[in-house]
Every structure is written in C-alpha cells, then in structure tokens.
C-alpha cells in the first residue's frame, strides 16, 4: 500500500534550469550543466553548487540527492541534511563552490563542511560561515556525500584511567590455529591466533589492556599486512597511513586490537609493543586533528614529522606546533592545474579548522603530562611460532602414504635447513647436490619449503633411483589445490603449503625410497608432470564408473570414476574432465593441458550418477561445453575464467 501510494503522489515539476523529481521523503534536484559555460544547481532547501566554465569534463546532468538517513560521524552534529552530489559521467577538473544552509545560528564550536569518501571515512572541508544568512560556503576539489556540522575541538584527556586493566582475552573466532602459537611477555598485551585456510593466512590478534596506546615495531616483517579492526573512523585511517609509511610505528590502541596476517613462509615472527613519550605525543596529535576532521593524509604528514623529533626534547611542544602548522600549510586542496588564487581561497575556507587545531595543540604539554608513563624503555615482546607441515602422503600413490624412512629424512632436512646446516644433515655418501652450492639462506629456505610440500612418487633422475620428488610440479601449486585436499590436509595446512611453496621455486629435491639418497638440483626442467599424467588419463578412453581409472588426479577413495576429453579452455589442446563420487558428494575436476586443476561440487545425490554424454559448443566462444545427464535431466559443464561452472 505504501509503495503504491508513493507511486501515485510522485510528480515531475519543472524548475528553473532543471527538473525537480519529488518523492514522499525529499526532493531530488537534477540540472543539466554545460562544461563550457558552467552553471549553478540550487535546491529548494538552499543547497547550491556552482561550477565555473571548464570545471566539468563534459556536459552532464548534476543531481543533488538528499541522504537524510546518513548518520553524522562520531563527534559531529549535523547542522544541515546530508546530500549526495552526483556528476553523472563527468569529472570535476578544477573546483566547485558549495553552499549549505545551517539550521542553527553560529556557535563557539567549529562549524565545518565534511565529505565522505568511498571508504566511508569523513574528512573536513572547512568553510566560511555567514551568520546572517545562516549558510556555510566552501571551495572543494571533489564532490561526494557532503554535509555541515559543528564539533568541539579540545585537548584529549589522558588522565582518566592508568596502568593495566582487566581486559578480556581477545576473540579470534571459533577456529583456533593448530599450527600457530603466540605468546606475550608481561600483561600489557594479550594474543590469540585464528586458523587460516586455502585462500587466507592465519590471523594474529594482539589486544592492549592498557588505557592508552602503544606502538608495535613490525619493521622486520614487510610482508605482513596490517588490518586494524574497528570502525572506519578518521583516526583509524590516520594510523593505517602512519603504519604504511613506517612499520615500527604501527599503532595498538588502548584497550583496542591490532590484526596481523601470519605468512606461511615464516616460521617465527617476533616483535615488541612499547609505550613512551613519543607514543603519547603522536596519540595526542591524532586525537586533536581527527576531532577537527582534518583529512587523514594531512594528519599522517604531521605525525610523521612529530615522530622524527627527539621524544625527550624540552621544546617538544613548540616543535609539534611547527609540524602541525607545516602539514596544514602544505595541504593541496584543489587539482594542480587550478589557479593559485583559487587554491588560496580554498585554504582560507579552512582557516577556522586550522585555528581550532592549533589552539588545542598548544595545550599539548599539560595534556601529555596527565598520562601515566611506563618509561621510555618499557616494551612487551610478542612471539608467534609455526610448527612445520611435514607431509605424510604422496600425491600419486594409492593411499598416498610415504615410508617412515622418507618422512624421517624430510624432518632431518627441515631441521638442518632451519640451522643452515644442510651438509651435516645426512651421511656424505647419501648426498648429491647438482647445479647449486650449499651457502646462503636462499638454498636452505628452498629446502625447508620443498620438504613441507607433498611430493610425487617419481624416478630420481640425478641418481637413477626411484623415490619421492619434491618440487617436480609447478612451484606456484597451480596443479595442487584439489590434490592437497584429496590427501586430507586440513584447510589451514593447505593454505600454509600454498604460501610456502613459492620459496622452493627453481629447486627440486629427491629422496630415495629407503631415505638414504638425497638429491638437490637447481634450475632444472620440472619434468612431464602434469601434462603427461593428464594425457595418460585421457588416453584411457571414455567409460562410466571405471575402477581402473586412477592416477595423480583421481582421489584414491573415490568411486564411480568417469572421464571425458574436450578442449575446455579453448587453447586448441585437449583437456580432461573427471567426474567422481566421494563420501556422497559428486565432483567435476578439470585437468587442463595448460597445467591447472579446477574442481566444482555438483548438485547430485549419491544415487543420481551424472554421466558426461558429449562435448559440444553452444555459445560460439572458445572452449567446449560438456553435457552431463542424470536420468532425464541434462546440464552443461563449462569452463570460465574463474573455473568450472554448471548451468541448466
């Protein structure tokens, strides 16, 4: 009824220079603006956007859309209804002048225009208030969701609460890691690790149980990605920017949390969290500038300047003021091609915001003095350690089990690689090293990576003996994902193996069946796997539910194995499609001649038995489709860029 009523009362009214589209809630103003001549869009509520000649990249319909449901960011109270200013297919090349009406008269608080970016973070645009007309006007270099509000910029109070708090243990989800363990010295931080999976690494969460923040020194681990949890607030955006510029200043909020990914190619990760005068000063600056909604990149510049100063400098307050003043002055508001006079006007719009920040910054010494100090040397060490994934199964053997003597050799090689002591790992007569030396961490790390990746039962070319070959398949594991799951590896181990495998690139390791002969080669061809194996399966010919259909790509415990040959990816070479049932679930597996494996779970019951009938081309694009039939129902199995897909 409500929708029907809205449709009945909707009307289109002509307005000067444009069209106003009315709804039950708020009007949407749409005006055609010329790129050559410019123009002004004005709404009945008093919102106005003026474009100078040449400001837009093309003629376009500018729409001003009310967004009354958009909530104000923390610390700001709306003085006007938020609006979304849309430019259609055009871009803002220079600037626009924005005027917003104010519901209330001017107060002693900071009144500013704010805009919301695509990441949901609000930043201040400043503005000049006309108390008589009750409007605020500003020049902007981009348009999005905008509004005006008032906020009070004051010095943060660090005196409330001090020392350790009884914070609860961190929550890392329902699945804890079986491979990673973490610990923290002292009681200032707590840790937990959530298990990873095929497509994501494990997560280390560090929580601070202090009333104030700390810095985590992560400079030794550039591959770690920092994703601080919590709201996408302006202060959070600033700390992410500071950490991206200098990993040793990664911020752990007071009684907050810091999330770190744990790459599988690391075995130990160790860092310290610390507090001290520099943490207190940086936290103060971020708090003040974020309360004024200074754009994040400007605050990051100010904080980095502050951190470059000696923390014990007696003139620290004056130096911080210089850093903040320089960052505000260096901010570029409009595009580079805009005239200097326009940029100067835009900066004047932000004078009120800058003065509010500088006034609060002058209270820095008293504000920081109220915060407890653990001492400049106070630090708490966090250590995360990963246990090795030593494979017990081979990819292409019935049952997959590796002899105990070979597993023992794997473990010896892994331990020796960690110590960089490979020559002493096995008796000298049992070692063959070709095309490489045994010096340097690159070799030892490659061996550690290889022996944590399931091998193939394959002839050892270097010793002319049968054995287990590690790294024979492609080092990026493009052929492995389905096979690792077939071997029963838990998702976390699969993820670790995939992350680790690239470390063994261009190396190949072979261990003889009795575990005595070990060959390590570098920069040698990878051999005929997987193309030869895929061709062997395809040469077995078609047939339904063939027990004899086996090999590296067929799970040993699967039943009703069926294959069909077709050019799935359109590269002119014949690929193999396997259909099999395993533990009540049907799976289609594409083994491409190009050297990749893709799995798709099929929507059939155990007793439905899908049968590949034929390969055909229905869509005219490169690559054939395979018709699957079960009873009277047919479906098409096809290969897209993302893998296999099924359609009726």
Molecular structure report:
The protein is an alpha+beta fold. The longest helix has 16 residues, at 404-419. It is globular, with a radius of gyration of 32 Å. Residues 156-176 are annotated as: Disordered.
Structural class: alpha+beta
User: Helicity level, as a percent range?
Assistant: 10-25%
Global Rg: 32 Å
Task: Describe the global form.
Answer: globular
Q: Note the beta-strand portion.
A: 25-35%
Report the mean per-residue pLDDT as an integer.
Answer: 82
Strand segment count: 35
C-alpha termini separation = 37 Å
Oligomer: single chain
Pick out the low-confidence regions.
1-25
Number of contiguous helices:
13
Main beta sheet: 9 strands, antiparallel
What secondary-structure arrangement, pairings included, does this model have?
Elements (H helix, E strand, L loop, with lengths): L1 H8 L2 E4 L2 E4 L6 E6 L5 E4 L5 E4 L8 E7 L10 E2 L4 E4 L9 E6 L8 E7 L5 E5 L1 E3 L4 E6 L4 E7 L28 E5 L4 E6 L7 E7 L5 E4 L16 H12 L4 E3 L4 E6 L5 E7 L2 H15 L4 H12 L8 H15 L9 H10 L1 H11 L2 H6 L9 E8 L17 H16 L11 E4 L6 H10 L5 E5 L4 E6 L10 H6 L4 H11 L5 E6 L5 E5 L8 H9 L19 E8 L8 E8 L2 E7 L5 E6 L8 E6 L8 E6 L2 E8 L2 E5 L1
Parallel strand pairs: 23-27
Antiparallel strand pairs: 1-2, 2-3, 3-6, 4-5, 5-9, 6-8, 7-14, 8-14, 9-13, 10-11, 10-14, 12-13, 15-22, 16-17, 17-20, 18-19, 18-21, 21-22, 24-25, 25-26, 26-27, 28-29, 29-30, 30-31, 32-33, 33-34, 34-35
């Amino acid at each position: 009824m409500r929708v029907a009523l809205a449709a009945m009362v909707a009307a289109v009214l002509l307005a000067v220079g444009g069209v106003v589209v009315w709804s039950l809630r708020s009007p949407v103003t749409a005006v055609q603006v010329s790129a050559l001549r410019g123009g002004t869009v004005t709404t009945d509520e008093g919102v106005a956007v003026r474009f100078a000649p040449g400001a837009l990249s093309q003629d376009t319909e500018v729409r001003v859309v009310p967004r009354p449901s958009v909530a104000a960011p923390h610390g700001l109270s709306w003085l006007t209804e938020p609006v979304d200013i849309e430019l259609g297919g055009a871009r803002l090349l220079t600037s626009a002048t924005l005027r917003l009406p104010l519901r209330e008269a001017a107060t002693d608080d900071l009144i500013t225009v704010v805009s919301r970016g695509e990441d949901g973070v609000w930043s201040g645009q400043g503005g000049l208030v006309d108390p008589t007309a009750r409007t605020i006007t500003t020049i902007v270099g981009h348009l999005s969701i905008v509004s005006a509000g008032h906020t009070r910029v004051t010095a943060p109070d660090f005196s409330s609460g001090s020392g350790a708090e009884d914070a609860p243990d961190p929550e890392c989800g329902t699945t804890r890691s079986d491979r990673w363990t973490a610990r923290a010295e002292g009681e200032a931080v707590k840790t937990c690790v959530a298990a990873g999976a095929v497509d994501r690494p494990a997560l280390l969460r560090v929580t601070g149980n202090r009333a104030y923040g700390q810095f985590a020194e992560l400079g030794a681990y550039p591959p770690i990605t920092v994703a601080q949890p919590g709201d996408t607030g302006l202060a959070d955006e600033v700390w992410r920017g500071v950490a991206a510029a200098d990993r040793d200043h990664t911020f752990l909020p007071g009684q907050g949390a810091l999330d770190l990914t744990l790459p599988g190619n690391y075995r130990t990760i160790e860092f310290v969290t610390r507090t001290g005068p520099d943490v207190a000063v940086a936290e103060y600056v971020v708090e003040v500038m974020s309360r004024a909604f200074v754009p994040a990149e400007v605050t990051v510049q100010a904080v980095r300047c502050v951190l470059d100063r000696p923390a014990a400098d007696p003139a620290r307050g004056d130096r911080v003021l210089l850093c903040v003043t320089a960052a505000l002055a260096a901010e570029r508001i409009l595009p580079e091609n805009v005239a200097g006079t326009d940029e100067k006007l835009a900066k004047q719009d932000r004078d009120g915001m800058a003065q509010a920040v500088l006034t609060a910054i002058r209270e820095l010494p008293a504000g920081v003095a109220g915060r407890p100090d653990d001492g400049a040397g106070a630090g708490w060490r966090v250590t995360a350690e990963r246990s090795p994934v030593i494979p017990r199964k081979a990819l292409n053997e019935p049952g997959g089990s590796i002899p105990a003597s070979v597993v023992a050799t794997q473990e010896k090689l892994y331990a020796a690689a960690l110590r960089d002591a490979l020559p002493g790992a096995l008796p000298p007569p049992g070692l063959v090293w070709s095309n490489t030396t045994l010096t340097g961490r690159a070799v030892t790390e490659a061996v550690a990576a290889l022996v944590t990746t399931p091998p193939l039962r394959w002839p050892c070319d270097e010793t002319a003996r049968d054995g287990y070959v590690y790294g024979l398949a492609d080092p990026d594991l493009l052929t492995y994902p389905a096979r690792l799951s077939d071997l029963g590896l838990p998702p976390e181990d699969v993820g670790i193996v995939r992350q680790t495998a690239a470390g063994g690139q261009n190396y190949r390791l072979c261990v003889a069946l009795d575990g005595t002969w070990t060959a390590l080669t570098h920069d040698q061809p990878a051999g005929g796997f997987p193309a030869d194996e895929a061709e062997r399966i395809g040469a077995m010919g078609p047939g339904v539910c063939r027990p004899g259909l086996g090999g590296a790509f067929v799970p040993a415990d699967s039943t009703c194995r069926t294959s069909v040959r077709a050019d799935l990816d359109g590269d002119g070479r014949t690929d193999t499609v396997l259909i099999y049932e395993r533990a009540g679930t049907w799976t289609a597996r594409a083994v491409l001649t190009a050297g990749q494996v893709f799995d798709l779970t099929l929507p059939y019951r155990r007793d439905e038995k899908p049968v590949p009938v034929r390969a055909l081309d229905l869509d005219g694009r490169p690559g054939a489709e395979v018709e699957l039939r079960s009873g009277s129902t047919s479906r098409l199995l096809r290969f897209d860029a993302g893998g296999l897909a099924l359609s009726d």
